[in-house]
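Hi there,

I know you've been waiting on this one. I reran it after we fixed the sequence typo, so this is the corrected version. Both the input and the resulting structure follow.
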Amino acid sequence: MAANNETGAIQPVAELAALAHSRGALVHCDAAQACGKIPVDVGALGVDLLTVVGHKMYAPRGAAALFVREGVTLEPVVYGGGQERGLRAGTENVALAVALGTAARLAADDLAAGRLAALRDDLHRRLADALPGRVRLNGPEAGWQRLPNTLNVSIDGTRGHDVLAAAPAIAASTGSACHSGVHTPSPVLTAMGFDADRALAAIRLSLGRWSTPADVDTAVRALGSAVAVR
């Protein structure tokens, strides 16, 4: 992963790719979470393959792209289909391809603003002020080492799913979307060395293109009230 999908932690992909290449291995990077949020340069990362997923940056679902470094040979998924470089048969979805390209361009134009990181940090600060001594950041302390749109925190003395159930004004999760509804400690947080209580208290809050300071106000009030009644 270029960036973790629960904590937003940006991974040392270039270092890992260099280690893998020193042993003769190819490296595929899942950049679904990172593309559209931070600059992603396949040359700087040194990876052989890299996946971009459209719906993570507001393109329609079903649109994705795979970067393949020159000289890397892939086994076709379905044989035939010379129009897709022999990698799979089937008619290209031109509309989705155009949508993915447009979404990528719009996301790139928005990268330099720094707006999301400021909102993320304001949300973190205000939650910590509202619940003094109880909010624990899950991920690197330095904001630049995390995705600008992702804030993962544990609130001492709570269970994340109970807090979110008591805060219907916001849409959030206790982990990655692919594990939503599962009330067990996050494998990611467990691997980071956190105990079960902290992992079960985790809440992942995500900001997006249309998030505003008013949304931060709503989230802080809703979570503060939800924790107060626990």
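Quick highlight: The chain has eight helices and six strands.

Best,
R. S.
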